[in-house]
């Protein structure tokens, strides 16, 4: 029973991480202009690039989220999510250092304002979850389903 | 074996990013085309004297710049006093939404009721400028516009701002 629980944790984390990214992507796809405003508020990208980011990023989040939830191409999806998380964290940290009073723009564009440090902590948690998912995936690739092999023997 | 698996992952990542980019660009093609031209959501016609309406009209960056440079419009910053002190569009005056709400019918000192007034705040995700615009219309100002790109779009275009440390 304990073994069952331990094996379920990475799967649960994978599905949760995927669901979080789908949840984050949908409102941004629905209102790209508001998300472009959130991106522009970071003052990192030039004007047009804020819009391009706002157009593409939510779809990348959505696709990776769906892959993680479905358990398809998990390693690639999780790696992209990991890199995205790192990029978000750098952007948030730079906003904090520059003292920008902005909403992180992580989830709902018109939702309650989230302070950069809260978002940074949240992204750290997501990154940790991603690391576990990738590590579990690698272990599975190395030794695919040992219990089935035992059954076949 | 490991090298082959890494190559496969890199290829998969490239495909995922490519597919997302194609979908994203196609889905938002109109918005991106407008942004490329530099005027998303900008009205086509030049702002004429606008009669009092319930909602303030949106106005694009190019027109705001023109009215700003020719001194034909009063720019009103709807953000907090502290944000205004840090940075604001040159020549703008501060009227935080909170203060305007408290006053109910906010008055802009020395500004005629038929003057062109443009409210702005922190860009597209900020709705304070729209709310301030509504209050100004209620207070009797006839030509109220909202610059939805706000300070971020203005600054990113390299137009002048004033204020303390960035």
TrEMBL record, chain A:
InterPro entries: Methylamine_util_MauE (IPR009908). The keyword Aminoacyl-tRNA synthetase does not apply. Pfam families: MauE (PF07291). This is DoxX family membrane protein. Signal peptide: none annotated. Keywords: Membrane, Transmembrane, Transmembrane helix. The keyword Transmembrane helix applies. Residues 8-133 form the Methylamine utilisation protein MauE domain. It comes from the Bacteria. It is a multi-pass membrane protein. The chain crosses the membrane at residues 48-70, 77-97, 117-134. It is found in: Membrane.
Automatic annotation (TrEMBL), chain B:
It comes from Geomonas diazotrophica. The chain crosses the membrane at residues 9-27. It comes from the Bacteria. Coiled coil: none annotated. Residues 69-163 form the Rhodanese domain. It holds the Pfam family Rhodanese. Keywords: Membrane, Transmembrane, Transmembrane helix. This is Rhodanese-like domain-containing protein.
